[in-house]
Amino acid sequence: MIAGRTYSVTRRTKQAARLAVADLELEHADDAPVRRPSSETVEAVVGEWWPRHSRRLADSTRIDYRRVIDKFILPNLGDIRIGDLHQTDLNRLYDTMLADGIGPARIRRVHGVMSVICGHAVKADLIPTSPVAKADPPRVIEKPIDPPDAEQIRQLLEHAHKIRPGFAAFLRLAAVTGARRGELIALRIDDLAADTLIIARSVSVAAGDHGVGTSLVEKETKTRNIRRITIDTDTVTILAAQIAVLTERADACKTQLVDGHFLFSDAMDAGMPWRPDAVSRDFARCCKASKLTGIRLHDLRHAAATAMMAAGVDVVTGASRLGHSRRDTFLNRYSHAMPATDGHAAQVIADGLR
User: Domain 150-336 in CATH: superfamily?
Assistant: First the structure.
């Protein structure tokens, strides 16, 4: 089959036949039939793509994708035929969003979702190429990382005791491990062995239950990896005290801690972990009590990473403790905190030439 037509080639040898086929392919290289782009609308393509693709997404990502689709993509691009969609249509949408005060990060989120949708259309042979690649979304200028310093973290820990039982232990662990909020909430007593902490799971709020209800979802970590990290002696002691508090509370209520009970829980048997959104609200209260502004719970993760980089901890160890899937993520994101070793490097090179 060459250019949509069938040819019969007969030669005395296989090699001669192959050469004849090659000559035909060269002769008809420009004769390939052109497939007409699909007349399906963007809305129809989304309707076909979404049910299958959404099953692969985490709850929070699925919710955000759906919001982007319903708020920006379908109202502005839904009626356009996928075969007629042009990068100018996308640029026009981005310019309108920017004029309406929507930030570049959100616009690039729309750009990303459209890239996935058009990528599906290419794979389904609805369009030959994706127009998203030629679109021009605004650049996102990353703000410099300015994590809380050691004194600010001490102030937070001092006030955390007054917020809720165990909250100071939670913040201490966040500060020394740099673990994500959901990973810390998912910790169980069995995840603590001597001075080693096993981070294997994460807890998030179920889809459709954000801000209300009680449904929580336990899942793999963000990178789907299990990591084992060492914690210091003081933190081990603090966590032992937290476990003792849980045990005493269960005894006082004449119940027992359930198997695999959570390290941070308000339930009498520690069978239900804290809600992620409640933890963030408690942290905001803690910042207010400490008279600290502009600090997020996630900034404790940045503080741990920056401290490691400033202390000269190697990239492999730093990325492993934080659970980065790529080592260069740790290096690129926190390179600003690297110690000033360039002068030392210059001297080492010079010494070798003497």
Answer: Intergrase catalytic core (1.10.443.10)
Q: What is the pLDDT of residues 285-331, one digit of tens each?
A: 999 999 999 899 999 999 999 888 888 888 889 899 999 888 888 88
8 Å CB contact between 122 and 130:
yes
Q: In one letter, which amino acid is 252?
A: A
Number of Cβ within 10 Å of residue 353's Cβ equals 5
- pTM exceeding 0.85: no
CA-to-CA distance for 260 and 145, rounded, in angstroms? 37
Radius of gyration, CA atoms only, the chain: 28
Contact 301/333 with Cβ under 8 angstroms? no
Q: What is the dihedral of CA 65, 145, 292, 159, to 10 degrees?
A: 80
Measured CA to CA, the distance from residue 265 to residue 278 in angstroms comes to: 12
Q: In whole angstroms, what is the distance from residue 13 CA to residue 94 CA?
A: 61
The single-letter code of the amino acid at 221 is T
Q: Which is the CATH superfamily of the domain at 42-134?
A: Tyrosine recombinase, N-terminal domain (1.10.150.130)
Q: Which two tokens stand for residue 132?
A: 């998203």
